[in-house]
Amino acid sequence: MASTLHELRPRAGGDTEKVTINLGYVDLGHIDLLVQDGFYSNRTDFIRTAIRNQIERHADAARLSVARKSLDLGLRHYSREDLEAAQEAGQTLHIRVLGLASIAADVSPELARATIASVSVLGALQASAAVKAALADRTR
């Protein structure tokens, strides 16, 4: 079952998720020194760059893992129409996404349970609280 790609309402802060990390004072001081000396514009710029460098360093292994686990990469949106079509066809969906999986706001918890067999998202899942609760036992 092919799902459709839709433009989502932009969130404050763009297409990012806020993450909190704990750093030692010496590490934090080194970051501040690099920012002060102009290597990075701020702490966030340094941390984002470090993360991207590590992801790039392991890109080949990650690419193989994405293929092995049959993950959809990027944004995957499931509309009410997608789920109703799957239900009419007698199919169930196994949602596997590396990035953002989005289930439309007009999808009822009953429709989600009837059509979604499993959910595995590495990144973020956007769905109503009711749909998330309905799929809690199917989410890894």
What's the story with the biggest beta sheet?
A: 3 strands, parallel
Strand portion: 15-25%
Q: How many β-strands, per DSSP?
A: 3
What is the chain-wise order of helices and strands? HHHEHEHEH
How many domains would you count in the coordinates? 2
State Rg.
19 Å
Low-confidence stretches: 3-13
What fraction, in percent, of the residue positions are helical?
Answer: 40-55%
Derived from helix and strand composition plus strand pairing, the structural class reads alpha/beta
Major β-sheet strand ordering: 1-2-3
Give the overall average pLDDT.
91
GO biological process, one term: regulation of DNA-templated transcription
Protein name: CopG family transcriptional regulator
Overview of this structure, please?
The protein is built from six helices and three strands. The chain has helices at 25-36, 43-57, 59-68, 80-88, 109-115, 129-134; strands spanning 72-78, 93-103, 116-126. It has a three-stranded parallel beta sheet, with helices on one face. The protein is elongated. Helix 4 (80-88) crosses helix 5. The chain folds into two domains: 25-68, no CATH class; 70-135, no CATH class. The model is unreliable at 3-13 (pLDDT under 50). It has 140 residues and is α/β, with parallel strands linked by helices. The two termini are 21 Å apart. This is CopG family transcriptional regulator.
Topology:
Layout: H1 25-36, H2 43-57, H3 59-68, E1 72-78, H4 80-88, E2 93-103, H5 109-115, E3 116-126, H6 129-134
Parallel strand pairs: 1-2, 2-3
Helix pairs in contact: 4-5
Features:
140 residues; alpha/beta; 2 domains; three-stranded parallel β-sheet; 6 helices; 3 strands; 42% helix; disordered N terminus; RHH_8; CopG family transcriptional regulator; Ribbon_hlx_hlx
